[in-house]
Structures are given as C-alpha cells and as structure tokens.
C-alpha cells in the first residue's frame, strides 16, 4: 500500500505508487504514528528538495522517526509546491539558487536559508492551503507551473505540459491572458535569472 508522501504542484500530499526523481521534507515530522498525515502538512518553514541518495544513507522504513519523507516527480514540481534545493545534499544547486535569488532581489550577497524560507512560507500558503497568484502565461519562464481548470501545467519552450504523478503529457499552446501561477513569486524570479531545475524525462 503506497504511503501518503507524494507531493503534487499544488503542495498537496497523496498516496500513489509513483515515486519520482527527488526526495524532500518540510522541516521535520508531521505524520502520525500510523503513518497518516496530520491536519498541518509541515513541521517548519524549512521545505527542501533533496537527492534520493546521499552518502549511502538509508531510511527504512519510511515515515518512521525523525522526519516525514516526501517525493516529487522532478524539481520543477518541488519548486511549484514551494520547496527549495537542500544546502546539505545539493549544495552546488542550493548555492546557485541563492545566487539567483540575490540577483532577482538586488541583494548585495546571497541570502541564508532561513531568510529564503521565511519569504517562501508566506508565498506558498494561504492558511493551510495553496497560495496562487496571477500572471500572463506567455511571460513566465521555463520551469514555472500554472493551473488551468484545476490541472497543473509546466511552462517549457512556449508550451504548457500537463502534469501527472507519472510524468508530463503532450505539450499544448500556452493559454492567453492571466492564469493562476502555482510556483511562488520568489522562485519564479529565481527561474528568470537562469536557475535551471531538473525536469522529468517525459518533458523532453
């Protein structure tokens, strides 16, 4: 039986068999002893996106002690949900992310993780639900995610790729006019500065 630890672009958590390319967490443990999800699906502001394997560490069984493991189709999905690269297992990527953040915000130096986490926590949530914002789809950078009719799409190469837990579907033209954007504004700004997230192979 799949565990409830797969994250979609809306930040919601589901129990599905597909695992994805990345692991992550939300700052600690928020699952119950029976490995179901409690009413608040995060432990702290530290929402990170990690590699599946790091220094031979193994956590078995999953969703046991310490923290709640989460899985993402790819980094594009993790960013849409409001997760940033981990500074421990993905230091080079996290450093590039922070540098792009500084460029986007006009900061004299890259911000520390807690500074970015505070901004992202405000941008990704409205109460306990997903916070979205409006923008012209055609003006969004590759790697941003939008929602149309309750379906998530990734922006890539001037097309909208429909998202699913198993991968992306065939691209279609971007919708005209303003759309609901799932990826937090600060992360969209980072993407505009050239930060290149990892895509699932189905996006090619």
Describe the SSE topology.
Blueprint: E1 4-7, E2 13-15, E3 22-26, E4 47-50, E5 70-72, H1 75-81, E6 84-85, H2 91-105, H3 113-124, E7 125-126, E8 129-130, E9 133-136, E10 145-148, E11 151-156, E12 159-164, E13 167-168, E14 172-173, E15 178-181, H4 185-192
Parallel strand pairs: 4-6
Antiparallel strand pairs: 1-2, 3-4, 3-5, 7-8, 9-15, 10-11, 10-15, 11-12, 12-13, 12-14
Helix pairs in contact: 2-4
Could you describe the 3D structure shown?
It is built from 4 helices and 15 strands. Helix content is 21%, strand content 26%. The radius of gyration is 16 Å and the shape is globular. 39% of the residues are buried. Helix 2 (91-105) crosses helix 4. It has helices spanning 75-81, 91-105, 113-124, 185-192, and strands at residues 4-7, 13-15, 22-26, 47-50, 70-72, 84-85, 125-126, 129-130, 133-136, 145-148, 151-156, 159-164, 167-168, 172-173, 178-181. The chain has 204 residues and is an alpha+beta fold. Strand 10 (145-148) and strand 11 form a beta hairpin.
Summarize this structure briefly.
The chain has about 200 residues and is an alpha+beta fold. The chain contains four helices and 15 strands.
Structural class: alpha+beta
Number of helices: 4
Mean pLDDT: 94
End-to-end C-alpha gap: 31 Å
Q: Please provide the count of β strands.
A: 15
Shape: globular
Strand content: 25-35%
């Amino acid at each position: 039986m799949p565990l409830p630890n797969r994250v979609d672009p809306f930040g919601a958590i589901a129990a599905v068999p597909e695992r994805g390319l990345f692991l992550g967490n939300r700052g600690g443990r928020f699952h119950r002893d029976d490995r179901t999800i409690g009413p608040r699906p995060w432990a702290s502001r530290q929402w990170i996106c990690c590699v599946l394997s790091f220094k031979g560490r193994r956590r078995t069984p999953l969703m046991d002690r310490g923290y709640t493991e989460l899985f993402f189709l790819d980094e594009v999905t993790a960013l849409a949900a409001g997760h940033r690269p981990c500074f421990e297992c993905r230091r080079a990527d996290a450093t590039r992310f922070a540098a792009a953040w500084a460029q986007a915000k006009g900061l004299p130096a890259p911000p520390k993780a807690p500074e970015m986490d505070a901004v992202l926590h405000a941008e990704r949530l409205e109460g306990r639900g997903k916070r979205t914002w409006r923008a012209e789809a055609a003006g969004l950078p590759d790697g941003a995610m939008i929602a149309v009719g309750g379906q998530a799409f990734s922006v890539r190469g001037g097309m909208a790729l429909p998202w699913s837990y198993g991968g992306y579907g065939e691209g279609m033209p971007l919708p005209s006019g303003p759309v609901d954007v799932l990826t937090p504004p600060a992360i969209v700004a980072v993407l505009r500065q050239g930060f290149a997230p990892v895509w699932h192979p189905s996006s090619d």
